[in-house]
Amino acid sequence: MKLYNFALYHETLLRSHCPSLMMMMTAWKRCCSKVLQSVIGSTGQQRTAANMCMSSPGPGDILNSDRRQVSIPEKRNHTTVIGRNANVCRIHGVVFRLNYGTRKSQVDAMSRTKQNWRSIAPCQRLISSQEIFQQRRGYLNCRQSSFLDSPLTRCFHSSSKRYRKDRKQPKERAEVTESTEEDRNPDIDLDSDVTYSEDEDEEYDSELDEEDLAEELYEEQVTLVTPKGGHKVVVVQPNVKWGAKKQHLTTGELMLAESVALVETLPHWKVVHTVLMSTKTPDKKTVFGKGNFQALTEKIKAMKDVTAVFLSVEALTGRQQKQMEEAWGVSVFDRYTVVLQIFKDHARTKEARMQIALAEIPYLKMRISEEVANLDQQRGGVRTRGGGGETFRELRKRVLKQKETAIKKALVRLKKKRDLLRSGRTKKEIPVVSVVGYTNSGKTTLIKALTGEERIQPQDQLFATLDVTAHAGQLPSKMTALYVDTVGFLSQLPHHLIASFNATLEDVRLSDLIVHIRDVSHPDTVNQKHNVLQVLSNLKLPQHLLDNMIEANNKIDLLDGESSVPEEDDSTVINISALKGTGLDRLRDVVEERLFEATDTVKTTLRIPMAGQQLSQLYKTATVQGVQVTEDAEHLDVDVIVGKAAFAKFMHAFKGKVRQA
Ligand SMILES: Nc1nc2c(ncn2[C@@H]2O[C@H](COP(=O)(O)OP(=O)(O)OP(=O)(O)O)[C@@H](O)[C@H]2O)c(=O)[nH]1
Ligand SMILES: [Mg+2]
């Protein structure tokens, strides 16, 4: 090994003067690689071992100007990378950190001399540094495919217009890439070494902008893989009976029922057992106390048909998850991953998809930090500097950051579009009513009933709606209002999941009125209301919106006696059944009344002279709803909806000639 390392140190020299020794070394190294490949799993220790051994250049190596390298086992169509920061790669699903040991002179010599390229890698091709970005993304995101198989088509450089242009023109791509490469490094002569496989050509075809990128990234993030026969899940619900973490408004049984509903929302996931387990310390590493954890482990191990455990806590750290998986012998999921997966399954629009991708980033960041901690603990290999996991973390964090920026940018663009639409609505003075509430409370059903919109399809499912949509409906005065359907809320939902929906929840913030719809037939309705109010207060809504909010007690048709939920006198609470249509007329009246208050508008009837400019003025400044000739045939009674300021101005301008009828 020492001889080998010595040889590596003088590799360039050896390549030209002693090819047979170099070949011997290469064969030795390949042999090491193959042995490693066969034994390497995914643990940090093995990765560290791989880092140590796969540290020397040879055929098929990736080398870059950062003086870092990685060895790739022999394979057809080797990819050779020249550029910056290609310091990590993935081989057959295993991540390798690149080694710092290669000397700059070696890399430079190889980069500059075509001869060397040929001798080292006759079947390799050179790719641009933009493509390296893609490979890094490939390493980070492609969980199944190997580094070499990952597509080389995407680029993180949003500024790299040229690259995108290349991809639009696949036939001319070879020349363009050539010149691009040469521009950057005139010493490299690429004429005969640049080859492209047909597969790669296809990948270059499709147009890709940041939104597409974000969408693709969304697809590639943590996805719960359902086994062929579906998942048979045991739901474990921690029940905090004492202390500050105790949930006062709900019970362990109700929380368990919600957890079961969550799991069963995922297609082919079936709950086969449930466990309600007391804990005093839900924040502890094992969530439960020692004795309870032991008892739980025995219980789960005795359940032979189980393929996964859903532990109903907000989010598990990577270490917790690993520890539990080792103890229980099956996959373990938390609320965050399950809810995120439901969101992914249900999101239809690009905006919702991007927001979900954004929501996942903090979770991934947390996991990366932990992985790094593990790797750093396990380092100790020769010729590694800065900690085994350091580069790994930097790279992944950088990729995540780029991704975050790309998504945020795309969201800002969409927000601008939304703002335009919103300003259009404001110009037309169409009032906006946001319908919010706990998931599955009947928001979509209510909007369908109020607007008569046929296309809306309510579903008996958690998080059926993830795309915020607006639908026009008529108020009793024939005035049009826009009802906004929103994403439902859920208890113990990590706040950044909700926060990631900020762009769409902006509509709620800017609406004129909020209707909070509750499922009063649900046994946990009080806790649900509490949760919704808490989320609304976290959204920092304007106080007047919260003060003016209407509460609609939905699904009263499911209650024993329809009067079992008392309505309050001040009409802030209205009993309805969105499905049966009960109480909707009253709700419309109250909505209109509140909208007038919120928008400083009055609805009135004005008596004006038949001859004069008053009527034309009213048409200009108010919404005229009806005109009747009075009995004396000299006046008109005009029903109008008009802003308070415009009304005062009108009355002042025609003082003595007009009055309220
Ligand atoms: N019996 C009864 N069922 C209702 C009523 N309103 C809604 N539902 C049912 O409740 C279920 C959920 O309704 P949705 O309108 O999809 O609820 P949502 O609040 O939009 O749910 P998410 O979008 O998932 O948050 C559907 O099966 C509806 O048919 C009602 O007044 N009475
Ligand atoms: Mg809905």
From TrEMBL:
Residues 188-208 have a biased composition (Acidic residues). It comes from the Eukaryota. GO terms for cellular component: cytoplasm. Keywords: GTP-binding, Magnesium, Metal-binding, Nucleotide-binding. Residues 160-208 are annotated as: Disordered. Residues 431-599 form the Hflx-type G domain. One of its GO terms (molecular function) is GTP binding. Pfam families: GTP-bdg_M, GTP-bdg_N, MMR_HSR1. Residues 169-187 have a biased composition (Basic and acidic residues). SUPFAM superfamilies: P-loop containing nucleoside triphosphate hydrolases (SSF52540). PANTHER family: GTP-BINDING PROTEIN 6-RELATED (PTHR10229:SF0), GTP-BINDING PROTEIN HFLX (PTHR10229). This is Putative GTP-binding protein 6. It comes from Branchiostoma floridae. The lineage of its organism: Eukaryota, Metazoa, Chordata, Cephalochordata, Leptocardii. The gene is LOC118420679.
